[in-house]
């Protein structure tokens, strides 16, 4: 599979056409796969099961027509994937030490989430690609969605010794999602009411989560001490009623991805058992949104053809979405 990814990089290393998105920053203006190198104390940062670790200095190098190396700080992040019995390699937070230049691929970026491979086995590479595909699927349905950028990443230790080459992807910052949609982050606490949500946007989220069979989310509440919501964020300012639009993320517990560590709520046998968790107040919007999903049938399945999934995995994913 790595050989197949390397072939795809031939196109990625050449300049490619940017997607026409207003105020889009260059990193997420394209979907071509990147080739990156992260050099630094990778083992110390990405090891799982330890106490919170402070950010560590590292370097991020971009290969391609315009190579560049940027000083960064790396820190671990996440909840489930930080546990030693779940992952051997934690998700990472990439913070730029200084603002990347105007001509940089990372121009305008301050801090990014990096979704990593969790474990070294080939199946976990497929889980990364499936979760990346989930972001791309939701992009097909609305611009009120997080963009993601896939990369083949060389991890190199501080002694310049190669450690691993694995797939990962970076996720757009919420502020940039808001800016693209002429919106702003909603100023909310731990909970919101149903009446505060845009029915159309809430129905779209609920139907999408049903399609990929994800139960690990809430568009009305967050864990104690956090801002609403759980695996979703709220934007305000676009719809006439002033209601909040939820933007979902973190799809690894879904039936579409189906990693071995995914757990289900009580009463659900496994993560591929679909349960609709939309709000009854939005039933009419959900029925209308179902028509939108049907109209996007070909485009949604087409996303799976654009992601470098192994063919048996792609077929299973397409059958599951069908």
3D architecture notes:
The strands form 2 sheets. The chain has a 7-stranded mixed barrel. A 3-stranded antiparallel beta sheet has the order 8-9-10. It is of the alpha+beta class and 322 residues long. It has helices at residues 2-12, 42-46, 122-141, 174-180, 199-212, 283-295, 297-306, 311-321; strands at 34-39, 56-62, 68-76, 92-96, 111-115, 148-156, 162-171, 184-185, 232-236, 245-248. Helix 3 packs antiparallel against helix 7 (297-306) and helix 5 packs across helix 6 (283-295). Residues 8-23 have low confidence and may be disordered. It contains 8 helices and 10 strands. The protein is 28% helix and 19% strand.
What descriptive keywords fit this protein?
322 residues; three-stranded antiparallel β-sheet; single chain; 28% helix; 10 strands; seven-stranded mixed β-barrel; alpha+beta
List the helices and strands and how they pair.
Elements (H helix, E strand, L loop, with lengths): L1 H11 L21 E6 L2 H5 L9 E7 L5 E9 L15 E5 L14 E5 L6 H20 L6 E9 L5 E10 L2 H7 L3 E2 L13 H14 L19 E5 L8 E4 L34 H13 L1 H10 L4 H11 L1
Mean pLDDT: 91
Q: What structural category do the secondary elements indicate?
A: alpha+beta
User: Roughly what fraction of the amino acids lie in strands?
Assistant: 15-25%
Q: Which parts are unreliable, with pLDDT below 50 for 5 consecutive residues or more?
A: 8-23
Spatial order of strands in the largest sheet: 1-2-3-4-5-7-6
| Distance between the first and last residues' Cα | 25 Å
Q: Report the sheet with the most strands, covering strand number, pairing sense and barrel closure.
A: 7 strands, mixed, barrel
DSSP summary: helix tally: 8
Evaluate the radius of gyration. 19 Å
Written as H for each helix and E for each strand, in order along the chain, the element string is HEHEEEEHEEHEHEEHHH
Shape: globular
- Helix content class: 25-40%
């Amino acid at each position: 599979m790595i050989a197949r990814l390397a072939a795809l990089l031939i196109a990625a290393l050449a300049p490619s056409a940017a997607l026409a998105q207003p105020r889009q920053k260059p990193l997420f203006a394209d979907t071509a796969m990147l080739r990156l190198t992260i050099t630094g104390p990778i083992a110390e940062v990405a090891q799982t099961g330890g106490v919170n670790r402070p950010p560590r200095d590292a370097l991020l190098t971009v290969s391609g027509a315009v190579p560049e190396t940027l000083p960064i700080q790396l820190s671990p992040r996440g909840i489930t994937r930080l546990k030693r019995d779940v992952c051997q390699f934690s998700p990472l937070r990439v913070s730029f030490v200084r603002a990347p230049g105007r001509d940089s691929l990372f121009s305008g970026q301050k801090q990014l989430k990096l979704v990593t491979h969790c474990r070294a086995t080939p199946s976990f590479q497929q889980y990364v690609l499936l979760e990346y595909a989930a972001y791309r699927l939701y992009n097909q349905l609305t611009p009120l969605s997080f963009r993601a950028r896939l990369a083949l990443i060389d991890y190199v230790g501080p002694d310049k010794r190669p450690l691993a080459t694995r797939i990962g992807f970076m996720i757009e910052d919420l502020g940039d999602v808001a800016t693209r949609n002429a919106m702003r982050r909603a100023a909310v606490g731990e909970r919101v009411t149903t009446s505060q949500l845009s029915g159309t946007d809430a129905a779209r989220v609920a139907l999408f989560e049903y399609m990929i069979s994800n139960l690990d989310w809430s568009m009305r509440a967050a864990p104690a001490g956090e801002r609403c919501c759980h695996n979703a964020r709220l934007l305000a300012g676009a719809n006439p009623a002033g209601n909040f639009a939820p933007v979902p993320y973190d799809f690894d517990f879904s039936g579409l991805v189906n990693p071995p560590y995914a757990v289900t709520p009580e009463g659900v046998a496994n993560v591929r058992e679909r349960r609709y968790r939309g709000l009854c107040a939005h039933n009419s919007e959900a029925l209308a949104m179902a028509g939108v999903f049907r109209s996007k049938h070909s485009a949604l399945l087409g996303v799976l053809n654009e992601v470098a999934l192994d063919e048996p995995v792609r077929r299973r994913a397409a059958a599951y979405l069908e």
